[in-house]
Amino acid sequence: MAISKDKKQTLVADLTTLLKSAKTTVYARYQGLTVAELQELRKSAREAGVKIKVVKNRLVRIAMGEIAVYKDTDTTGLTGQLLYAVSDSDEVAPAKVLAEFAKTHDALAIAGGFSDLGANLSEDEIKALAALPSKNELIAGVVAQLLSPVTDSVSGLAGGISGILSGLEAKAS
């Protein structure tokens, strides 16, 4: 069934808005996935703050052409049945969601992506992104490293004070 011109214009406008705010966009081949599997992917993506879109590649190219950052981006890789994973808050989340899903579903194959600067990202680059810790995990690691000396000092002082107190108690007896 053909989509009306008005519906296509609405889709392109929505895609343009989505891509403008995207930190990372990852696309994958999904031929062979069932509707139930796609719903499962959408659910896990939603939980990670990622939006999954299944639209014609031509409409994605039109939307990208309307965004200054993506005007000169090579879109020759946008062929076949693709779904697009987009996040406006986390650069790693789209790659992580698709890579995690692809581990248990062979029909999903990551094909590439785009950075928020308009750069093409290869399949290998996307897989490397997926292997990185999430933004929250990185922040937690940095905070733990910063607090490590303070925690060690407090532990040392706490042990020292109890030792001094027990020594004083022993002398008072």
How is the topology of this model organized?
Blueprint: H1 5-20, E1 24-29, H2 35-47, E2 51-53, H3 57-65, E3 82-87, H4 93-104, E4 109-115, E5 120-121, H5 123-131, H6 135-172
Helix pairs in contact: 1-3, 4-5
If you had to describe this structure to a student in words, what would you say it looks like?
With 173 residues, the protein is an alpha+beta fold. It has two domains: 5-132, Alpha-Beta Plaits; 134-173. Helices cover 56% and strands 14% of the residues. It has helices spanning 5-20, 35-47, 57-65, 93-104, 123-131, 135-172; strands at residues 24-29, 51-53, 82-87, 109-115, 120-121. The chain has a five-stranded antiparallel sheet. A hairpin with a 4-residue loop joins strand 4 and strand 5 (120-121). Helix 1 packs across helix 3 and helix 4 crosses helix 5 (123-131). The longest helix is centred in the last third of the chain and has 38 residues, at 135-172. It is elongated, with a radius of gyration of 25 Å. The model has no long low-confidence stretch (mean pLDDT 84).
